[in-house]
Amino acid sequence: xxxxxxxxxxxxDDDSAPLAALIAASFAEYPNCYFEWAEFPExxxxxxxxxxxxxxxxxxxxxxxxxxxxxxxxxxxAQNAVEITKVYAAPAFRGSGLAQxxxxxxxxxxxxxxxxxxxxxxDSRFARGHRFYxxxxxxxxxxxxxxADVSETWEFHFRLDxxxxx
Length: 166
Prior knowledge:
The longest helix has 15 residues, at about 100-110. This protein has a seven-stranded mixed sheet, with helices on both faces. By secondary structure, the protein is of the alpha+beta class. The chain contains four helices and seven strands. About 30% of the residues are buried. It has helices at about 15-25, 45-50, 100-110, 125-135, and strands spanning about 10, 55-60, 65-75, 80-90, 115-125, 140-145, 155-160.
């Protein structure tokens, strides 16, 4: 946990390697969960990737180097929703309020864009993350999806209705 909140900033394309390191370290905490560069082409130029889709990716730099946490938001116009992705926090920063601050940026982005919902898919193994999403008001929707990736990932779907929410 950190004593002072870390400042957030928009991701840059040169955040590629530190973002990959954060995600790989997060995956390594779970059995049979592997990071494979080929499955994450968006990490080659993360800021450009999100910008091209009208989205944003925020990060917090870890004091000593690397990235402490990340969160991305991308519009899904057909659903009038914003999809949340790349939600990761290094263990030392979990419970510090950093993920909440990142989510607040995404929520502001969604509201300013006039979107009705936020949604996300999360690896079925990431139970701690699921509790965080539910604390934020997300509800798990029925059904799962299979990614057919190197980790044989199954994901749960979560949605948050922004209509009428404070």
